[in-house]
C-alpha cells in the first residue's frame, strides 16, 4: 500500500511536462531555457525531499512551482554591480565609484556605446585623428597648458609621466614629506620603481628646503617632483618647497618639474564657498612642466587621468608604447568631453555637475530632507531603535581636503538595547535592502548623512524602507 507522501511524490509532474506549461513558457522567455531547467530540477529535488518527510503534503501546482522558480532565478540574476545609496557622508567615495556623471555625460557616453563614433577619424581635415584631440582644446583653455593627454586613471598618468621622463633608471627627486600612500595601494615609491625610475628622497618627513633639492641635483637627475599629500596633513613645525620655487630649481638644473595634484579641480572651489584646492592652472603658472590629476575626483567626470604640460614632453608621452596600453576608451572620452563642456560656464556647475551640486548643498536643506524622512524611518526600524535628526560632517573624499569637513545633517539610528553587535546588525539590515543603503557607524549609532541623497531619489529611498528586515523580525 502506498503512503500518502509517496503518492504525493509520484504526483510530482515530470520536468518535460512542466516546461511546457504556460507559466514556464514565460519564465523561459525571461531567463532562457538552460537556467530554468536547472532551477526546476533543483526545485523538484527539494520538493521530493520535503514530501518524503511529511505524511500528507500537497503537491504544488505549476503556477506555484513557476513562481518559486522566478523568485530563485531573480535573486541569482541580480547584477553583482548595482546601485546603492551613499549615505556615508563621503561625497567622492572611492569604493562607491567616486563622481557621478552629469546627465549630459550619461547621454554622450551611451551614444558612444551604441553607435560608431569618429574616435580616431579625421572627419573635417582639422587634424582630429588622435583620440585625445576631442578634449585637448578645452583642457588647454582650462589649465593654460600647451598640450594634454588622457589615460585610464591618475595612477596611470603618474606612471606614464615618470616612465617617459625618467625610465631606464634615472633619478626623480621627491621630498620625504610627500612619499604618500593614497588609498587603493597607490604608493609613490612603488609607482616610481615600477616606472623604472630611481627615487631620490630628500628632506625629512616634516621639513624640506630648497637646498635639499639643489644639492640632490646631479648627472643622473631626470626630474624634480611634487606630490599633493592628498589624504593627510602635516601640521606644526613644517616646511615645504612651493611649486614655483621647485620649478625654478629644476629649470636651473636643466630638468623638468613634475607635479602630481591628485584631485586637480579645474576651477577655484572658493567660488562655490568651499575651501581652496590646488588647480592645474596654478601649477602650470608656477612653472610645472607636467601636471597629473584625476578625472573622477573633484573634476566630477569619468575615471581617467589627465596629463597637461609642455608640448615636447607631452609628445614624448604620446609616443611611449605604454600610452596604448593605458589609453581611454570612447565611452569615457565622450563623457569627459561632455563634463568639460559644462566648465565653459562655471556658473552651471553648481546645478548641473553632481559633484559640485552635492558638495554645495546647504546643511539646512539637508536637515529638511532628513526631517521629511524621519517618521517613515522610525516606522521601518520600530520601537527598538531611536531615530533622530542630527547634525554631522561630510567629507569631500578621494584625498581632497582631508581635514576640512562640510556641515551636514542626517538621521542617527541608535539601537536602544546596546547588546554587542546591535549597531552592526542594523547596518547590515540596511545593506540588504533592494537598493543597499550604506551609512557609517559612530558612537554606537548608525549615521545616515543625507548630503548625497539626491532629492530626485528621495521617494525611492523612502518607499523601500518597509522592506527593511531587522535581526529580531
Ligand atoms: C588619487 C590620487 C592618485 C591616484 O589617482 P587615481 O585616479 O585614483 O588613479 C594619485 N596621486 C594623488 C596625489 C592622488 O590624490
Automatic annotation (TrEMBL):
Domain of life, per lineage: Bacteria
Pathway(s) annotated for this protein in UniProt: Aminoacyl-tRNA biosynthesis; selenocysteinyl-tRNA(Sec) biosynthesis; selenocysteinyl-tRNA(Sec) from L-seryl-tRNA(Sec) (bacterial route): step 1/1
GO terms (BP aspect): conversion of seryl-tRNAsec to selenocys-tRNAsec; selenocysteine incorporation
InterPro entries assigned: PyrdxlP-dep_Trfase, PyrdxlP-dep_Trfase_major, SelA-like, SelA_trans, SelA_trans_N_dom
Cofactor: pyridoxal 5'-phosphate
Gene3D superfamilies per the UniProt record, alphabetical: 3.90.1150.180, Type I PLP-dependent aspartate aminotransferase-like (Major domain) (3.40.640.10)
MF terms (GO), sorted A to Z: L-seryl-tRNA(Sec) selenium transferase activity
Subcellular location: Cytoplasm
Family, similarity comment: Belongs to the SelA family.
Annotated HAMAP family: SelA (MF_00423)
Protein name per the record: L-seryl-tRNA(Sec) selenium transferase
Name of the gene encoding the protein in the UniProt record: selA
